[in-house]
Each structure stands twice: as C-alpha cells, then as structure tokens.
Amino acid sequence: MKLILRLTVNVFALIVVSYLVKGFEFDSLFAAIVTAIVIGIVNTFIKPVLQILFLPLSIVTLGITAFLINVLLLWSVSFIVSGFHINSFLTAIIASVVLTFVSMFLNKLSDNN
User: What are 33-55's pLDDT values in tens digits?
Assistant: First the structure.
C-alpha cells in the first residue's frame, strides 16, 4: 500500500512539474506513470552506484556533482521512456530542482506520522 501511495505522489509531482516547467512534457498519463516507475528504479539501483563512484569529486565540488548526477539521470530517463520529453539540459536542471521541492512537499503532506 505504501508503494502505491509513493508512486501516486511521484506521478502527481511529475505532472505538477510538467505544468510548471516549459519543455518538460508528457504525451499521456500512462507516460507519466511509466516515468515515475523508471525514475524509481533508476534512483534505487543506478544512483547509489554513481554517487559512490563520484563521491570524491562530489566532496571537492561541495555537492554540485551529486546534483548533476540527479539531473543527468532525469534527463537520461527522458531518452528511455517514450512519451516523456525534456527539451534541453537547462530544462532538465530546472525540472530537477522543481521536482525535488514538489516531491518533498507532497511527501510531507502524504506522511501519516
């Protein structure tokens, strides 16, 4: 049940970002759902490996590398999922920041504690 709630929150966050950020687009609701699933898989399996590999560089750059890893992973998902489009790298940067804040806000709202 918690997984379904988290997926729903993530899909809603992606849809909110698509309304707020020009160039961050979905062709359908199904594309948003698939994108949320793929982002979840990427963040679970690929992101930790990249963060460990680039930890020294991330320390030297005071976390900018960790931020860029998030941006690159989000942008790469747009190449994997058909129906999800990010027009430019700058759009991916802006969308990553907005998605972080929208997701944090929605996750706080959905917490039952």
Answer: 999 999 999 999 999 999 999 99
